[in-house]
Amino acid sequence: SQELEQSPQSLIVQEGKNLTINCTSSKTLYGLYWYKQKYGEGLIFLMMLQKGGEEKSHEKITAKLDEKKQQSSLHITASQPSHAGIYLCGASPGGFKTIFGAGTRLFVKA
Amino acid sequence: KAGVTQTPRYLIKTRGQQVTLSCSPISGHRSVSWYQQTPGQGLQFLFEYFSETQRNKGNFPGRFSGRQFSNSRSEMNVSTLELGDSALYLCASSSRDSGGVSSQYFGPGTRLTVL
Tell me: the pLDDT tens digits for B33-43? Predict the structure, then answer.
C-alpha cells in the first residue's frame, strides 16, 4: 500500500525566514494535496498538484510536484506567526480514499 | 457557499456506549469521507460515501459504520465504545464523482472523548 513520509517532523523557524517541507511517496504520485491544520481543528485546503513539474502558489506558500522523485515540496517564504500549524500532505491511491502523511509541525518564533 | 459542518463539536461518552456523529457537506458535493485522527496513528481513512453508497472502507472494526442520506448528509456510528476510540473525527466532502484527484474540504471535526 502507498505511504507518504513527511520531513521534517517538526520545524522551528524565526519569523521572516524561509522554510521547506517535503513529502515523499512510496509509490507513483498521480496527484498530491497540501493541507494546513491548526491544533485540534479541521484541515484547511491549501492546494492540489496533479502534473509532474506543476507548481502552485497560495499567498506566500508555494508547492511543487516532482513525479520522478515521487516527491512534493512546500516552501514558505518570509514566514509569519500565522503560518504556524501542522502541514499535511495527502494523496489518492485510488479507490476513493485519501492517505495522509504524519504531518510537519511548524512553529514560528516572533 | 457554506463549508462542511459537523455536529456535535465535542462529545464525552463512557466505554460501552454508542455514538452518532453528523456531517453536512458543501452544497452540491456528493462525496463524503470520514477520517479518524489520533496523536499516535495520525489521520486514517474510515470510509467514503457517494450517492448513499459506500465506495470504500478503511481498516477499522465493524463497530464503525456510516451511512449517507439522499441530501448527501452523512452520519457515522461507533458502537460499544472503547477508550482507544477517543479521537478527532473529521468529515470531508468533495465533488469527486469518479476515481482520481479532486479537492476535499474538511469540517472542523468532532472531538470524541471516551472515559
Answer: 999 999 888 99
Chains A, B: CB contacts within 8 A come to: 65
Length of chain B: 115
Are A40 and B111 inside 8 Å of each other by CB? yes
Q: How far apart are the first and last CA of chain A?
A: 41
Which has the closest alpha carbon to B45: B22, B70, B64, B68?
B64
Asked if residue B25 has a cis previous peptide bond (ω within 30° of 0), the answer is: no
Chain A residues in contact with B48 (beta carbon < 8 A)? 96-97
Whether residue B106 is predicted with pLDDT greater than 60 in this model: the reply is yes
Between CA A52 and CA B83 the distance in angstroms is: 43
Q: All 3 cell numbers of residue B37?
A: 485522527
The answer to whether the CB of A70 falls within 8 A of the CB of A91 is: no
